[in-house]
Known about the structure:
homodimer; DNA-binding transcription factor activity (chains A, B); HTH_TetR (chains A, B); DNA-binding (chains A, B); 66% helix; Tetracycline Repressor, domain 2; 0% strand; mainly alpha; elongated; transcription cis-regulatory region binding (chains A, B); Arc Repressor Mutant, subunit A
Amino acid sequence: MVTDKTTEKGSTRYHHGNLRPTLLSVARALLEEGGPQALSLREIGRRAGVSAPAAYHYFSSLDALAAALAEQGFAELSEEIDAALAGPRRHLLAGGIAYVAFARANPGLYRLMFGEGFQAYSKGNEAIGASRMRVYRQMKEDLEKRLAPEKVANAALFLWSLTHGLALLTIDGQIEPGVDPDARVAEVLKLAGLGLPAAK
Amino acid sequence: MVTDKTTEKGSTRYHHGNLRPTLLSVARALLEEGGPQALSLREIGRRAGVSAPAAYHYFSSLDALAAALAEQGFAELSEEIDAALAGPRRHLLAGGIAYVAFARANPGLYRLMFGEGFQAYSKGNEAIGASRMRVYRQMKEDLEKRLAPEKVANAALFLWSLTHGLALLTIDGQIEPGVDPDARVAEVLKLAGLGLPAAK
DNA sequence: TCATGATTTTAACAGTGTAAAGATTGGATC
DNA sequence: GATCCAATCTTTACACTGTTAAAATCATGA
């Protein structure tokens, strides 16, 4: 069979396309369409115009492919946080806003990175566990500049919990429609610095 | 075939056991062993000593069975929070501690209740969406007694995010081993009332 | 006693991840 | 330029899954 294989760029290809990136990009689209549950090697192959076992030349399993996606996500998230922290606005708040904005822009990917499947595909993949810790470190380092040492651990867990929880609830549609999500997120995150408002 | 079917109680059974509760309890065990991903109708049937399609007389699908488990979970969680709020300790803090303790005691169930599969099995099941909201209401009602009306919405989202995030991070093993989880949770939740510690 | 209705089983279908084997091809070597 | 090689992809097959349709079984009311 000598059918033409046209890649996304429209050019007719030799053996077959540059598959690995194609697989990842197709998988990512699938991920955002239907969440981590929708990730399927056969569907990925189908959309890439390739037979399902073809993916096994680049990934040892579906979980391995998912892990690669997650690593991609951690790299991007880390970058966005760095950019926000380098920006003109208040450090921790800007970082938190960027964190939640990333989750909102990539809900499927965020669920993959922090979801239930995490233990499964991170088995034997130490890199991705480390990636996950890196974003935590970013928060923590900022806190270390501003707090007494014995208070850092609790404050870091506090901030990470708040941000992570807010990201997930946002993704799950718990922010009322009609309000600007960034503004709402900022308001909520500000409470972290101020504590609960005073009693009436 | 006239084989004896012995239930968990050890008694020999007529037609076959009281299946629905057995299915639920077996499924719940499976859930805590391997997380929501491990839920499998065939495995549930196997452990219940019954053929897989038997479950279809009580649940229209695997998702429906998962929804029933989730509802069970919401009822229990709600009860534990009520009990904590009625107790002698500080209201919101005690509620938060009970919330996280529930997640720690039932990690698989908690992931099912708030995890990625949620949208899937809550389709056409309005009851469980409502159940999910009920725990939010509990927090919110308590806040309404203590805050000016315009501050309630943000404060509620703030507290829910923090508690939900802390529960998930705890489940994911982000609390250092060796410390008492309840104590650690209490310390972190206290920061919600106090704000971040003052700069050094 | 016996028919009825509820319960469970067997058989089958379409879908999945994955392993093993064979086919195809692009590029290096003569 | 022809030829071999190693990388890449396909075909085939297996075990597993959720789910449906049909048949078998049993508990109980008439």
